[in-house]
Amino acid sequence: MTKFTRRAALASAAALPLARPALAQSGDPIKVGLILPMTGPFASTGRQIDAAIKAWLRANPNPVAGKRLEILLRDDTGVAPDVTRRLAQELVVRERVRALAGFGLTPLALSAAPIATEAKVPMLVMAAATSIIPQRSPFIVRTSFTLPQAVRPMADWAAKNGIRSVVTMVTDFAPGLDSEKAFKETFTAAGGTVTGEIRTPLRNPDYAPFLQRVRDLKPDALFIFVPSGEGSALIKQFSERGLKEAGIRLIGTGDVLDDDILNDMGDAVIGAVTSHHYSTAHESPENTAFREAFRAVAPEMRPNFMAVGGWDGMQLLATALARTNGDVDGTKLVEAMKGQSWTSPRGPVSIDPATREMVQDIYIRRTERRDGQLWNIEFDKIQGVKDAA
Amino acid sequence: MAAAVTVLLDGIASGMLLFVLSVGLSVTLGLMNVVNLAHGAFGMVGGYVCAVLLNRAGVPFVVCLLAATLAAALLGWVLERLLYVRLYGRDHLDQVLFSIGLVFVLGACADWLMGARQQLIQLPEWLSGRVEIAGVGLGRYRIFLILLCGAVAAGLHFGLVRTRFGARLRAAVDDGTVARGMGLPVGRIFSLTFALGSGLAGLGGALGVEVLGLDPNFPLKYLVYFLVVVAVGGANSVAGPFVAAILLGVLDVAGKYWVPQVGAFVIYTAMVALLLLRPDGLLAKARS
């Protein structure tokens, strides 16, 4: 199997530069190596970010500091850190890319970090969300979010809004345990009690028995964190079990109600309260422009939080290049990125110079049906949230 | 008390679904002696047929279930005639390698056609929600599962024991050479049986979209569960896997409810215990 995927990855790698038309040269283009899971179980992440980057390039056609940006896309299939590492190495050595970008999941980002350090190229992490990532290389800058960044405001909000007892239910893997811990710490510190901690196996056929247990524990709210695609199965069982009628509220982080699939989840999700840094329904001129640019590239998709990470990554890189006057030295570029602030489609953001993480507003949203579609509607926000792992 | 009844009924529903999904495997493995690890792929095909018809064409759910069954049965029949028939005489390693390969091929096809994401369906109004009977709450869909799968199990049992086709199948399995000598079309009987098993997997896959989820990893994700049912139930009857599936379903649900810390392992512990006690299957006669 490994052989097959490698071959497929190599074949697509070989085909890509040929498919790109030779545009009028304005000096040598600045090459950016984009590594994403375009196939496999996490293909949604790759498709979203790829579309967002294409959208950004269409919306910003002018050369940056006199140079054109050229994106070299590689598929790492999402499940093989060694492939990610090898692709990063090839891009740096053979294609001489001046920046690496993408990285769908934590193990993939970690495996490529030493390459960025050695080659001294900036590495823009646009998706992977575990806190430790930027500590692995001084060249890593993240334009997505971290889990504690989203979880802690949720716990705070719950404590301040009449929720006294919570049962947590997370998938039994690293991000799940991270969010369980972060939620419990913040919620307990704010005066609430966690009356039950349930961990569901990663390969889980049925959430029903766990939810029946929650129903009988009778908490004020159930906090959930599960891998993105699993959210709908869980929430359906939540409503089938009658937890809503039993007075149990549903809270969680926004990736459970991913905009990419939210619309197919059905009315069961209405009323769920989640915290996240981006909702497609966010109201601002920047987001309207972003959604229009995205629709021109991928009319069948709704841009989600992954897409906005890709868009902001390009924005950040372009501004940094403008600041260095087109100097592609990696150390200078990362320095130019530190402390930058701009208005993203998600709202005002900046790069924390100390951690190279996003400082951003976290929104509390409720799922509602508007114009026949399901949206996460923001109704409260916590400003300038830093990553506090 | 009410909680215990709810857990019991949930367990039965989940066991029934498991039975419909895996009974075909116990037939091919036990009766025809073919190790068909691609069994779950037929379930996946059924699930996708159901999801596409329901979501894109708005076909009523019950019709979708029927279409899923037929589509999986047809695919099973075609693949049996083209490919599996060449494997009947081969050793088990060949069969394992072939069927695992088939899982990857069908999984990749599903990925290419439908994408890697989870498929979501909306059940009709009359199947959603929950009813309270004497203080015991149960989802309507689970009641539907119990009734439908129970009917399928009863039908299979009587089909195998009472009908002429059942008698022929048992004869063909007991001694293929003699059966052929008596003029029974053994090859055709096997094709039909294979198609039937695949069709039932398709039905199970379609019924399972709401409960188990559906993505291109479905056949591998649940393969272990199918094999556990067949191993525990014994691979040569309908009643054995049925009892095994119900037992495992109830234990699985009860374990997750009362001891969620180890919930995932209860089913495997039960398998080990049952195999130690009854290595030939739950209902097998003692070895003579």
Automatic annotation (TrEMBL), chain A:
Signal peptide: 1-24
Protein name: ABC transporter substrate-binding protein
InterPro entries: BCAA_transport, Leu-bd, Peripla_BP_I
Keyword terms: Amino-acid transport, Signal, Transport
Record-annotated Leucine-binding protein domain positions: 29-368
Keyword Signal among record annotations: yes
Family assignment from sequence similarity: Belongs to the leucine-binding protein family.
Database matches in Pfam families: Peripla_BP_6
Classification via CDD domains: PBP1_RPA0985_benzoate-like
Automatic annotation (TrEMBL), chain B:
Keyword Transmembrane among UniProt keywords: yes
Domain of life according to the entry: Bacteria
InterPro entries: ABC_transp_permease, BCAA_transport_permease
Transmembrane residue ranges: 7-31, 61-84, 96-114, 143-160, 189-212, 224-251, 257-277
One Pfam family per UniProt: BPD_transp_2
Keyword Membrane found: yes
Bilayer disposition of the protein: Multi-pass membrane protein
UniProtKB keywords: Amino-acid transport, Cell membrane, Membrane, Transmembrane, Transmembrane helix, Transport
Annotated compartments: Cell membrane
Family, as annotated: Belongs to the binding-protein-dependent transport system permease family. LivHM subfamily.
Protein name: Branched-chain amino acid ABC transporter permease
Organism: Muricoccus vinaceus
Biological classification of the source: Bacteria, Pseudomonadati, Pseudomonadota, Alphaproteobacteria, Acetobacterales
